[in-house]
Amino acid sequence: MMQLEATNLTKSYHEHEVVNIEKVAFGAMGLEGLIGPNGAGKSTLMGLLTRRIAPTSGSIKLSTDTGTKSLNPLRSHEVARIGLIKTNQRIQGFDSLTIRDSLRLAMTPPDAEGLKSIFAKTRDSDEVEEKVSYYVEAFPFTDREGHARSGGEKKLVDILRCLIAEPKLLLMDEPTAGLPDDITRKVMNMVREKVASGAMRVVVVEHDLPLIWEYCDYVHFLSEGSILFEGEPDEVKSNRVVAEKYMGV
Ligand SMILES: Nc1ncnc2c1ncn2[C@@H]1O[C@H](COP(=O)(O)OP(=O)(O)OP(=O)(O)O)[C@@H](O)[C@H]1O
Ligand SMILES: [Mg+2]
Predict the structure, then answer these.
(1) Ligand 1 centroid to residue 206 C-alpha, Å
(2) Distance from the CA of 72 to the center of ligand 2, in angstroms?
(3) Full-prediction pTM beyond 0.90?
(4) Domain span holding position 204
(5) pLDDT per position as a tens digit, 167-186
(6) Apex 31 CA angle, 30 and 32, nearest 5
(7) Would 226 be classed as within a structural domain?
(8) Where residue 239 sits, what CATH number does that domain have?
(9) Where would I find the ABC transporter domain in this sequence (predicted)?
């Protein structure tokens, strides 16, 4: 069991309310989509859920088989430690670490003391190296032993960093924007396999609707900061409100 639930969650910037959600729950299904127009508040919601952005009001709870925990008092690295992380829509940094080191780092448990625990031999190092190689070799990086070269490669490293960390619930913010089609499919197939094996649950934000319809078991529609509709892909696809507010039909 895995449920991430937000209740009466709001976020305002300078009096402007960008998120206002009575109730939403993620994690009930394997692969869920979160869609909505530009500026709907999707990235803000993901930031709120992972405690990277402080809410104006509202509560966020994570329930697993071992119990329910309020995320409100936690910081994002503590949220990560209990198994909830996100990929980033826009990538910054990564320039100082090689692709392999970024992935090695992701396999060490996030620590409040930050960089101190990097490369600490908390796991069997053969296991780490084997996993890192699996992910690096699955994709055509320009320089496998070096740094990510392009924006697309950095984005891919960010995604792989999250997959290799094996969270319980992974939020992906436009994972495939800026990636070539064949890489997008490879990433999504990898995600689907992990979800099918029961290793993790995933919520994906995407403007690529065919991809959402193809991969997601359940879809949430966000517009102007609120969840307006939720359902299986077919229901969402044929919903009038979604069509009017998003697809301009
Ligand atoms: N740090 C901030 N300060 C002020 N306004 C912000 C900030 N972050 C986001 N916003 C505003 O909040 C609204 C929601 O932004 P958000 O990035 O969450 O939308 P989104 O649904 O992810 O859009 P997109 O599909 O374009 O990525 C927008 O109007 C945006 O301008
Ligand atoms: Mg966004």
Answers:
(1) 15
(2) 22
(3) yes
(4) 2-93+167-247
(5) 999 999 999 888 999 999 99
(6) 120
(7) yes
(8) 3.40.50.300
(9) 4-249
